[in-house]
Amino acid sequence: MRALCWTGVNELTVERVPDPRILNRHDIIVEVTLSSTCGSDLHLLGGYIPAMSAGDIIGHEFLGTVVETGPDVRRHRVGDRVVVCSIIGCGRCWYCEQGLWSLCDNSNTTPGVPDLVYGSNPAGIFGYSHAMGGYAGSHAEYVRVPFADQGAFSVPEGLSDEAAVFASDAVPTGWMGADLAGVRPGDVVAVWGCGGVGQMAARAAMLLGAERVIAIDRLPERLEMTRRHIGAETIDYSTQDVLGELIERTGGRGPDVCIEAVGMEAHGEGVQYHYDRAKQQVRLASDRISALREAIHACRKGGTVSVLGVFGGLADKFPIGAVMNKGLTLRTGQQHGQRYIPDLLERMDRGEIRTAHLLTHLLPLDEGPRGYAMFKDKTDGCVRAVLRPGG
Amino acid sequence: MEKSAKLVLAAFGAAGVAVLLSGRSRDRGTDGRRPRWQVVTVNRPVEEVAPAGRPPEPLAALGDAVRTRVRPAPGGRGTELAARPGDGTRGRARLARTMGRHPEQTVATALREAKQLLEVGEVTTVEGQPAGRRTATGTLLRSAAHRSRGRLPR
């Protein structure tokens, strides 16, 4: 089959590789219909998560058709149209039983790596480096899906592939950001980042009853999209003062919940951004956290900051003083998708959550490198480039 | 774990470096002599983890080269399953014969596999999955990452 492989920092190549096969009894093989780029892939591409190895197939947000099932698979049959959670969870360990699927004890085949760096190991993730299990990703004609009964979900008939693909990651990640933060009716919620995840977090906050949702970005097309398709207010941080705007719009309190959907390569303005970038370039810090700092600063006393953006290692100038003295709660984690996806698919089917607009560029697999270039540089209004391995 | 592998991992972040440079051996117990118990918590009841006191596979297969111990985990979390290389030279010699130069790593691997067999019925793997062209550096990194299973002996 053909697959999009990471071959070095900022290098992707479409290669011919062997077809995947069933390796564990709970596996299925899925013929990939659509596989989306995700902002978190950019950290792999850029070499910010260094446990990548040339030849690794990337991609983790996907939808397709079951073509083979392992002997212990009960819920799926050949021919099922399924969307697959980007995080792999066994469903049997204590963490999965608590609904903390991204902390699964058994799905990471390389637990020693995060154990050394983090003190323990999170779950395996498709196409997400040899720190997260080294699983082959979904930017390929076929992909092996471990623990398929837990992680693959049949898609309602009325839901298009183009909409449903985002139930794999962007929708549940955004939903989790609002859910873990405990968004309640009457809350004011601010969201940093109007990419797929940020937009979904904003929508989730509205559905959970938030009175006002304010989303922050700098790209006019994303801001416009967030206003039109999500119904949130926006702030353009390249022309507006974010903290001033938030204080004014929240009666001087600050948002009850601040959701960060940006991650370790945050773009920003001014001295702070260049300072972070310089430290990251010489590897004195691995993560740039300007959006997270701002979220902490903006949050009301006793509020909650929900971190959805992916961070890998260490950050500099983390405002622990603000966190402590304002009595903030931090919630974070890779997404516990298995716990949310069935409900979210129903909400998507009912039209409560709209996603199809996120797919701005549908490309054949061979154009994967170009898709990532557009996605990374945010050219041509690209929000999500989605690959269609079938051509 | 080999030095080269540690260096590759350390590149992942200064946190790793800090751990590596702390210099204190985690393999030894507080008395500084006997190997420390390595422990996993298995989300199954004690009678399933060690029926009639017999340790689960693949620990059982290691025989008296390892010592094992089970006890209920607090809060209904299942069973704490502990193992360490056997006392005395016989145990260690046998361990070295059956498991090579890194007995603590072997114990860690056996513990993790026992947990997986008990919880999900098999050991999850990525061996045999597709990949594009590999390079020498990448192969070093992968072998380091995939060799280290369970909490690493340092």
UniProtKB/TrEMBL annotation, chain A:
<protein>
    <submittedName>
        <fullName>Threonine dehydrogenase</fullName>
    </submittedName>
</protein>
<dbReference type="Pfam" id="PF08240">
    <property type="entry name" value="ADH_N"/>
</dbReference>
<dbReference type="InterPro" id="IPR013154">
    <property type="entry name" value="ADH-like_N"/>
</dbReference>
<dbReference type="GO" id="GO:0046872">
    <property type="term" value="F:metal ion binding"/>
</dbReference>
<keyword id="KW-0479">Metal-binding</keyword>
<dbReference type="InterPro" id="IPR011032">
    <property type="entry name" value="GroES-like_sf"/>
</dbReference>
<dbReference type="InterPro" id="IPR013149">
    <property type="entry name" value="ADH-like_C"/>
</dbReference>
<dbReference type="Pfam" id="PF00107">
    <property type="entry name" value="ADH_zinc_N"/>
</dbReference>
<dbReference type="InterPro" id="IPR036291">
    <property type="entry name" value="NAD(P)-bd_dom_sf"/>
</dbReference>
<feature type="domain" description="Alcohol dehydrogenase-like N-terminal">
    <location>
        <begin position="25"/>
        <end position="148"/>
    </location>
</feature>
<keyword id="KW-0862">Zinc</keyword>
<feature type="domain" description="Alcohol dehydrogenase-like C-terminal">
    <location>
        <begin position="196"/>
        <end position="265"/>
    </location>
</feature>
TrEMBL record, chain B:
<feature type="region of interest" description="Disordered">
    <location>
        <begin position="69"/>
        <end position="91"/>
    </location>
</feature>
<feature type="compositionally biased region" description="Basic residues">
    <location>
        <begin position="144"/>
        <end position="154"/>
    </location>
</feature>
<feature type="region of interest" description="Disordered">
    <location>
        <begin position="128"/>
        <end position="154"/>
    </location>
</feature>
<protein>
    <submittedName>
        <fullName>Uncharacterized protein</fullName>
    </submittedName>
</protein>
<dbReference type="InterPro" id="IPR023393">
    <property type="entry name" value="START-like_dom_sf"/>
</dbReference>
